[in-house]
């Protein structure tokens, strides 16, 4: 199905094949970019127009562009995979389209028809499919939208640009799947009730960077935030949702509301429940986390998201001390089983009985 909006195509001069192959042998994360990008414009009174697949290039922005002053900007993160037979797939992109529009509504931005969103993403994947690494790598896709109307005034803008860029990536965390260490921030919070915590907007991440820098100074890989009201309840990491596995096999994860409704999160909950695991979406305090880890009631903790997929958490540091989850050296069996089930579906290596995979022609 296509959106009905005609795309202009301006082919890029591709990076030579030999050079591209060398680059994607070890792409890192978010450092390399493909040959093309997609852009679509929205104008008040006109709607969506001027859809184009074109060579990746810088934007030209007026210093008074609204995004630079009032931060009307949202984005998504998703991946395309190369299967063993060379088939190109994406994982639940319809959910990304839906969440993108939920973010747009919260930020007073225009919503893009889901079929147009999907068509835009598929066009860049098809054009730049040679950039998808083999093996464990993937093509990270970044659809985003920002306001570029030239004005200084606090109101929703009248003109926006939707864009999709693509980046070949390897693992998000280095270390070959070794459990990560996280820092519990008692100074900074990510979101509050009524705020933008459930929207995927740049401001949420900008506000988390100082806490992430604090985590790095403490020798940690990531920061985890507590709620803004009581500084008691665990919410999420700087860019990932979090799960707790108990000694009876049940799983607890913080409820939605002020946290991002992760697509990986929702998928893992569904997979676990289908396997007979009790999953509760309920508040879980940092004091409970510490006590349960020390008593042995808490057996595993893992974080999840599009970029990192599933990452075991081995140690937790906070002002005044630290504690470990299990032996802190390896991912637990529940974490490993869920990761393998999810990755198997994403890469077309297991049966997609839920219809989560979208094949790219």
From TrEMBL:
Biological processes per GO annotation: isoleucine biosynthetic process; L-leucine biosynthetic process; L-valine biosynthetic process
CDD domains reported for this sequence: BCAT_beta_family
Annotated EC: 2.6.1.42
Catalytic activity, reaction form: L-isoleucine + 2-oxoglutarate = (S)-3-methyl-2-oxopentanoate + L-glutamate; L-leucine + 2-oxoglutarate = 4-methyl-2-oxopentanoate + L-glutamate; L-valine + 2-oxoglutarate = 3-methyl-2-oxobutanoate + L-glutamate
Keywords of this entry: Amino-acid biosynthesis, Aminotransferase, Branched-chain amino acid biosynthesis, Pyridoxal phosphate, Transferase
Example of a GO MF term: branched-chain-amino-acid transaminase activity
Residues where N6-(pyridoxal phosphate)lysine is found: 200
Transmembrane segments: none
Domain of life the protein comes from: Bacteria
Cofactor: pyridoxal 5'-phosphate
Tagged with keyword Amino-acid biosynthesis: yes
Pathway: Amino-acid biosynthesis; L-isoleucine biosynthesis; L-isoleucine from 2-oxobutanoate: step 4/4; Amino-acid biosynthesis; L-leucine biosynthesis; L-leucine from 3-methyl-2-oxobutanoate: step 4/4; Amino-acid biosynthesis; L-valine biosynthesis; L-valine from pyruvate: step 4/4
Function summary: Acts on leucine, isoleucine and valine.
UniProt family annotation: Belongs to the class-IV pyridoxal-phosphate-dependent aminotransferase family.
Protein name: Branched-chain-amino-acid aminotransferase
